[in-house]
Write a structure and sequence with these properties.
binds adenosine-5'-diphosphate, six-stranded mixed sheet, alpha+beta, 35% helix, seven-stranded mixed sheet, 23 strands, 16 helices
Length: 492
């Protein structure tokens, strides 16, 4: 039997067919347009999201050559926080999707902070007030689209994150649901009551009737008839980063995954009890299975793989990203060069929006290879800063890091991560962990797999990186890095 995973991302929609051993049988992918109406604003047309997803879903199934009756289930994973409001009767969105990156609600978020709501919101939702999250985006739509609030109050409008929008369309407008992991990104969901929070709905002036029903991440939400009228259950749903943790088999407290893409997304399975961070990590729901909820702590690095793109596109000192590995290995060390890629400020644990990029330690002997090496090392140092904070705040000793994302292909980077963090770094055979996570959840939902224990046997390591740096050297390097960060701070 097989599972069809739908991965609706920020720039493209993908679909992957997996077999019951977790092997990839076929992949289809399609980009769709990004809409930038004003500086700092980002939108998608919800129909572009749906149509591209539908196309790749059908393409992946045909490419696989597998008869439809052997596809047991569909799992959905999605760009998180992106907000869509549509008409319950016609299914027509009343505005474009407001994408997670969109900053239009930044002023409103500042206002919430000034009103002293940070603690309340953190306590209830686990989140730091920020324009990323869905609640303020819903409010913006209701405030700015004619008649929207009245219609919403009359129960004529529905809100959904992208998973909700996809499941609605997959089921022909019959099912209006989301899962715990996506709900926990709205700034409206109470982590303790596991329900939409009336006080927050009131603060943001959002009628409860438009909110989807929140269900476990593995659950038969409905059936899809889109492909040749064949009925396939939809039985998995999780936000992309949480799906990646699940696809990495991060089922136990203390397991950490890092996705090395444009930025880094680091998630620690924090177990069944809510853990809060005092230094800007986010508390989120990793997933809900049956009546069990697993929480996660999340930290991110703004500029990771992007620093390698910068070396290629802005400095022109590498031809492609994989060349960075060869050149970094061609020198014995960083030659004393440290690179703090604070192009857009620094996130956890530094939280300095005014920090800017810095390359320090340059001498007459510095070669471009040293700068390239320092750039790769910076990705690992920034990750280490988040890991250290996670350890500190939870008291959990992190023993290994499971990796995925484009830059996890870089062996130099992975070895340096292992050395500087003094942990095992494990790269799995299937690095499509986001889709795999959605497939795992869907397969559990229809009983293709019995338990997470069974899934653990499917997850295979491709390469393990063991730390081999002396404690003394490690200490020296970390000290230099911290000093470089200090000098990059508060520049703008
Ligand atoms: P995203 O999903 O954020 O677009 P991907 O997971 O596709 O990111 O990874 C792309 C990023 O990884 C780019 O920023 C690129 O510079 C970086 N990258 C890809 N391959 C390598 C490599 N071999 N070494 C270092 N960085 C790499």
């Amino acid at each position: 039997m097989y599972i069809l995973a739908l991965d609706q991302g920020t720039t493209s929609s993908r679909a992957i067919v997996f077999d019951s051993l977790g092997n990839i049988i076929s992949v289809a992918q399609k980009e769709f347009p990004q809409i930038f109406p004003k500086p700092g604003w980002v939108e998608h047309n919800p129909w572009d999201i749906w149509n591209s997803q539908k196309e790749v879903m059908i393409e992946a199934v045909y490419k696989s050559g597998i008869p439809l009756k052997e596809i047991s289930a569909i799992g959905v994973t999605n760009q998180r926080e992106t907000t869509i409001v549509w008409d319950r009767e016609t299914g027509e969105p009343i505005y474009n999707a407001i994408v997670w990156q969109c900053r239009r609600t930044a002023d409103y978020c500042e206002k919430l902070k000034k009103e002293g709501l940070s603690e309340l919101i953190k306590e209830k939702t686990g989140l730091v007030i920020d324009a990323y999250f869905s609640g303020p985006k819903i409010k913006w739509i209701l405030d700015n689209i004619p008649n929207a609030r009245r219609k919403a109050e009359e129960g004529k409008l529905l809100f959904g994150t992208v998973d909700t929008w996809l499941i609605w369309n997959l089921t022909g407008g019959k099912v209006h649901v989301t899962d715990y992991s996506n709900a926990s990104r709205t700034m409206l969901f109470n982590l303790k009551t596991l329900d939409w929070d009336d006080e927050l709905l009131e603060i943001m002036n959002i009628p409860r009737v438009m909110m989807p029903k929140v269900l476990p991440s593995s659950y038969v939400y409905g059936t899809c008839h889109i492909i040749d009228n064949f009925e396939i259950p939809i039985s998995g749903d999780a936000g992309d980063q949480q799906a990646a943790l699940f696809g990495q088999c991060g089922f136990e407290e203390g397991i950490v995954k890092n996705t090395y893409g444009t930025g880094c997304f680091i998630l620690l399975n924090a177990g069944k009890n809510i853990k809060y961070s005092s230094q800007g990590l986010i508390t989120t729901i990793a997933y809900g299975l049956g009546d069990e909820i697993y929480y996660a702590l999340e930290g991110s690095v703004f500029i990771a793989g992007a620093v390698i793109q910068w070396l290629r596109d802005n400095l022109g000192i590498i031809k492609n990203s994989s060349e960075s590995e060869i050149l970094a290995k061609s020198v014995d060390d960083n030659g004393g060069v440290f690179f703090v890629p604070a192009f857009v400020g620094l996130g956890a644990p530094h939280w300095d929006m005014f920090a800017r990029g810095l390359i320090i330690g340059i001498t007459r002997g510095t070669q471009k290879e040293h700068i390239i090496r320092a750039a790769l090392e910076a990705i690992a140092y920034q990750t280490q800063d988040v890991l250290e904070l996670m350890s500190e705040e939870t008291g959990i000793k992190i023993r290994e890091l499971r990796v995925d994302g484009g830059a996890s292909a870089n062996n130099f980077l992975m070895q340096f991560q292992s050395d500087i963090s003094n942990i095992r770094v494990i790269r799995p055979l299937i690095t499509e962990t986001t889709s795999l996570g959605a497939a795992f959840l869907a397969g559990l939902g229809v009983g293709l797999w019995e338990s997470t224990g069974e899934l653990k046997h499917l997850w295979r390591e491709e390469k393990v990186f063991e730390p081999c740096l002396s404690e003394e050297k490690r200490g020296e390097l970390l000290k230099k890095w911290k000093e470089a960060v200090r000098r990059a701070k508060n520049w703008e």
